[in-house]
Each structure stands twice: as structure tokens, then as C-alpha cells.
């Protein structure tokens, strides 16, 4: 069971903006990592774009499951995981991250923010904390 990506986005008008993201592409071949990360960013934006405000969904994309939560205020989160990762845990993580993000980052920054301008450092920690480690043999 593996988490690959955790993203915070803003579903604004006219488009979806990536505000902050964390990736774990360590299991991919070195030469594939940047294209896998691009795919995850693109997929996250596309899923948020196609989701209604106030909705949760799990979407299968290739061998991944993408869990999306779009709040009524337009703040959205996406977790990309393998098929075995528990859906309930993904949505618990998204709730926690979006609540914390909205407390730490002003709503005024969301429509124009970018990963470079938004100051929120917790995503890498959450991605690491929620990884399911296989027991050592």
C-alpha cells in the first residue's frame, strides 16, 4: 500500500490552481520520476476541475486511485494512492490537511497562489507519516 501524491488546489473561476503538493516517486525508475510527477499534477488538476463543490470521489486512473475532496469554499485536496490503500484513510487525511491549510494560509492567497508563493510545509510530513511501511523481514 502506497501514497504517491498529496496536493492542495483551489477550484476557482475560471481554472484550478495547484497551491502546494508533495510527491513520493522513489519507487519509480530515476528517468521516469519527473514525467510521473507531471502526470500526477495534471491528473489532480483535471479531477478537481471535473468535481463539484462540496463533493468527494475516488477515481481510477491507470493503476492508481485518485481520491478527491472539493470543499464548498473551493479548497480541494487530492491523494493519489495505489489500489490497496484504504479509501477511508485517504479522506481522513484530506480532511485534516485541508482544515489545517485553511487555518494557516489566508483565503485571499488561494485564487492567485502557487507552490512557490504559498507557505505551508506540512505536506511532505503527512505524505511520509501516512505511508504504510511493509514490515521488515
How would you explain this protein's 3D organization?
- By secondary structure, the chain is an alpha+beta fold.
- It is built from 3 helices and 5 strands; from the N terminus they run ββαβββαα.
- A 5-stranded antiparallel beta sheet has the order 2-1-5-4-3, sandwiched between helices.
- A hairpin with a 2-residue loop joins strand 3 and strand 4 (64-70).
- The mean pLDDT is 94.
Summarize the structure.
31% of the residues lie in helices and 28% in strands. The chain is α+β, with helices and mostly antiparallel strands and 137 residues long.
Q: What would CATH call the homologous superfamily? A: Longin domain
Reported for the largest beta sheet, the result is:
5 strands, antiparallel
SS element count, helices? 3
Structural class: alpha+beta
The number of distinct structural domains comes to 1
User: Cα-atom Rg, whole angstroms?
Assistant: 14 Å
Question: Low-confidence parts, pLDDT < 50 over ≥5 residues?
Answer: none
Helix content: 25-40%
Overall CATH class: Alpha Beta
CATH architecture: 2-Layer Sandwich
Shape: globular
Kindly report how far apart the N and C termini lie.
17 Å
Share of residues in strands: 25-35%
Which fold name fills CATH's third level, the topology? Beta-Lactamase
Number of strands: 5
Task: Return the string of H and E elements.
Answer: EEHEEEHH
Estimate the mean pLDDT confidence: 94
Give the spatial strand order of the biggest sheet: 2-1-5-4-3
GO cellular component, one term: Golgi apparatus
Subcellular location: Endomembrane system
GO molecular function: SNAP receptor activity
InterPro entries: Longin-like_dom_sf, Longin_dom
Amino acid at each position: 500500500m502506497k501514497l504517491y501524491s498529496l496536493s492542495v488546489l483551489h477550484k476557482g473561476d475560471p481554472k484550478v490552481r495547484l497551491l502546494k503538493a508533495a510527491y513520493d516517486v522513489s519507487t519509480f525508475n530515476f528517468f521516469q520520476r519527473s514525467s510521473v510527477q507531471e502526470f500526477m499534477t495534471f491528473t489532480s488538476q483535471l479531477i478537481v476541475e471535473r468535481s463539484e463543490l462540496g463533493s468527494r470521489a475516488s477515481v481510477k486512473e491507470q493503476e492508481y486511485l485518485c481520491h478527491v475532496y472539493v470543499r464548498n469554499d473551493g479548497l480541494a485536496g487530492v491523494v493519489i494512492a495505489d489500489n490497496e490503500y484504504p479509501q477511508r484513510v485517504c479522506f481522513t487525511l484530506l480532511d485534516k490537511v485541508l482544515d489545517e491549510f485553511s487555518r494557516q494560509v489566508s483565503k485571499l492567497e488561494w485564487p492567485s497562489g502557487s507552490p512557490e508563493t504559498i507557505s505551508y510545509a506540512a505536506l511532505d510530513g503527512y505524505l511520509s507519516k501516512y505511508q504504510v511501511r511493509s514490515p521488515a523481514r
